Amino acid sequence: MAAGQLFPNNVISVEEVxxxxxxxxxxxxxxxxxxAEIVWSIGESTAxxxxxxxIETAKRSTNAGYGIRxxxxxxxxxxxxxxxxxxxxxxKTAIDSAKVMEADPSFKSFPExxxxxxxxxxxxDEKIVEMSLGECIGCAADMISGVKEIKNMIPxxxxxxxxxxxxxxxxxxxxxxxxxxTTVSGFADVTTESGDVSTAxxxxxxxxxxxxxxxxxxxxxxxxxxxxxxxxAGAGKMPVIFHPFSFSDILENTLASAVDADNVQKGRSxxxxxxxxxxxxxxxxxxxxxxxxEGIASGPFDDEGVPxxxxxxIRRGVLSSYLYDSYTAGKDGVKSTGNGYRHSYAAAPSVxxxxxxxxxxxxxxxxxxxxxxxxxxxxxxxxxxEISGDFSVEGRNAFLIEHGGLxxxxxxxxxxxxxxxxxxxxxxxxxxxxxVGGVVTPSVxxxxxxxxxx
Length: 454
Hints:
Layout: H1 3-6, H2 14-30, E1 35-51, E2 54-72, E3 75-81, H3 87-99, H4 126-129, H5 133-148, E4 153-171, E5 176-192, E6 199-206, H6 213-226, E7 235-242, H7 244-253, H8 255-258, H9 261-265, E8 285-289, E9 310-315, E10 318-319, H10 326-332, E11 340-341, E12 350-351, E13 356-359, E14 371-379, E15 390-402, E16 405-410, E17 413-418, H11 419-425, E18 426-429, E19 434-436, E20 439-441, E21 444-453
Helix pairs in contact: 2-3, 5-6
């Protein structure tokens, strides 16, 4: 698995990079480091943006660099560089940084060498590697065409993205790992061409070149059209069904933070000290699975070299585990769950989700709902209280549910609640499972929530 296979025009030799890393790791001990770790990543990305029906920008770029952590007397120093010839100098910088820092008693060690990594299927597609800039522009144009298939609807903005990446990690404990992945995604925002104003969007992401980009544009336009001439939902408590877009948005801004071991250890989680407690409907399970085939965040190991795994966070309603990277696992005296991820080579790892999977018995929940409201997307989930779990969001592209069907569109509506109460009050899930950037969920029905219509 050589980066040259991913990037035909790349002149960087992976074997030379590995040799340079091995040399720098040996020198780190000579220069006073008790442990050292080096990651090297190279990625190629393509981004196409459009406004209205015009392709506005089309860019292809490559980014590569080293990230180094070094331990001296219990203190961890970090340094990064995108200058390939500066590896040894960057190692010295990381070591010098550690020498002037105070020891961290919570740091234990970098991960040890493991017996080997199990491959994860469906995370790399040669067809994505081979996509030309013109083909990528064509995917964006397909979304515009999809919008225009629906009368009186026009695109306001949108974009296509493609990425191909290779990641290498080695440390002085003998750990070494390589992984590669591909991703494509597209989104489209639409509005009405004239008359009543209605907006909507659609989004999709995949590790394979399998997305129907025309459908993304068309789906957004159809939703905007259905949302025209909305009525007031009134006010009161009623069943609410959240589309995967809106439910995943709430979870990412509440539950995900609550099970992050770093937040738990720092007293920033409403789930601190509650392992083994029933916190949700007994039919609900939530699993973080870095081994999921074709998962957006899947891979053989996390960005610290720890093998990925399937971690039951909530098992049949009971809180079973927090999510750990190596540092937070060391503080609690447990094993890392393989959730140490970096935003780039120039950032130190921290706890993050892999594929956050919502499991609940599925049925036709709309048909089973006599009266309620359906929420496609929301605004304001980022303002949720990460500790208490309280949130208040604005629902968009909402519809009344009457006698088992979606009827009238609803104007802007406010939904307020508490994520921990929501988990207890889930009483249904649809069959429309979507992968929304790493959260894998169907539509979910909450038995009762506070609703305030416009």
